Amino acid sequence: MPVTRPPTRFAYLGPEGTFAESALVSAVAAEEGTRQPAPSVAAALAAVRAGDADAALVPMENSVEGSVPATMDGLADGDPLLITREVFMPVGFVLAARPGTQLADVRSVASHPHALAQTARRLTELLPGIVPLPATSTAEAARQVAAGELDAAVCAPIAARRYRLDVLVDEVADRSGAVTRFVLVAPPGPLPEPTGNDKTSLVAVVGDRTGALLELLGEFGVRGISLTRIESRPTRERLGAYSFSLDCEGHVGDARVGEALAALHRVCDDVRFLGSYPRADGRENKPVTDVSTDAAFAEASTWLARVRAGRP
Ligand SMILES: O=C(O)C(=O)C[C@]1(C(=O)O)C=C[C@@H](O)C=C1
Fold first, then answer.
1. Model ipTM value
2. Atom of ligand 1 nearest to the CA of 182
């Protein structure tokens, strides 16, 4: 009898109309599963950890405003989760209000803090003297405007349509061309197969030693592995204790990446592997140097085995 698998349940930062939902729609075909909005990044990750969702799509970083702390910390702490995909989404913002509202009528405006940061200058020009309020997402701000709780929202054009708002001002981003990188995270399980153009993410806690960060970077450098992102986050244990969240080129199944991670496991206080997944930013990993290929690593271990066997 054919086994029918239940559809994958994808959680995302909701409500409907977020950039996260658009990114999920762009990356996952409708027949691949169902979509369930979560009220926050933490809630989306918690749904996966509790088994109420099979995967969650959450924002990781934005080309203008940088990393999303809720995602960084949500992946670094708690039960382990694995990134299985990355998804890039252009983000553009509108100022939306209930039909009939004029710009001069607006007394309150809200959005996700990342969206407010990307539109801060324009909002000051358009709404002088009004302090923008944070919302859990751009679409949540739009929903609150539709419910009459706020006058205006900075949101995606799709959220304005979804909540039947009028666009008061189109394109309110301070910088055009912004892109947000989302990641799809799932419970621990088989890793995506290496494609030859992959990324690996991890969080490393380095000890309080002189040169500890240099040591960490050196493990990548000596194996010819390029980093695509690195940032520090407080471990929240005490002032001055940091973890490093980073992405590098390559798959943990590649000899050079596997060896680098094993070395970090030796030299760092803690290493959390966050996944290896296909690179999706349209760029190619840097060519692997001759001395860092899988073949070069295999040949070196064959040589070492011979040496150890007394046959140099
Ligand atoms: O609020 C949303 O629509 C989101 O998907 C979140 C988010 C973010 O966290 O950065 C995504 C893209 C934009 O940069 C603004 C907000």
1. 0.94
2. 11
